[in-house]
Amino acid sequence: MGERTEYEEGDKAPNPGVYMEVGEARSFHTQIKDPMRITMEKGDTFPETSNKNRKWKKVEKARVH
User: Fold this and answer.
1) Is 3 a domain residue?
2) Domains in the chain: how many in total?
3) pLDDT value of residue 8
4) Sign of the four-CA dihedral 24, 28, 34, 35
5) Whole-prediction pTM value?
6) Which portions of the sequence form the region Disordered (predicted)?
């Protein structure tokens, strides 16, 4: 079983990095106007999102094919 990719308020960050809000459809590409972005260190606690149905997801660099 792999590492989770979406996190809720109160969860601990598994790795350092930049995380952003994702939409209710749990799709990374769901359009959210001005999604919150936060920089986290390993073990930091995720804050509340701007909408109770949203989650936090790590921002990854896009692959170039």
Assistant:
1) yes
2) 1
3) 95
4) positive
5) 0.77
6) 42-65
- 44: which 2 tokens? 């930091």
Q: What is the extent of the structural domain holding 37?
A: 1-60
Check: CB of residue 14 under 8 Å from CB of residue 52.
Answer: no
pLDDT along the chain (65 residues), means of 10: 85 94 64 85 96 89 48
The angle at the Cα of 53, spanning 61 to 17, to the nearest 5 degrees, equals 25
Is 55 within the bounds of a domain? Answer: yes
* Residues sharing a CB contact under 8 Å with residue 41, sequence separation 6 or more, in sequence order: 13, 16
Structure tokens at 24: 């209710």
d(CA 20, CA 56): 5
Residue 45, in any domain of the structure: yes
22 close to 6: Cβ distance less than 8 angstroms: yes
43: closest CA among 19, 7, 9, 13?
A: 13
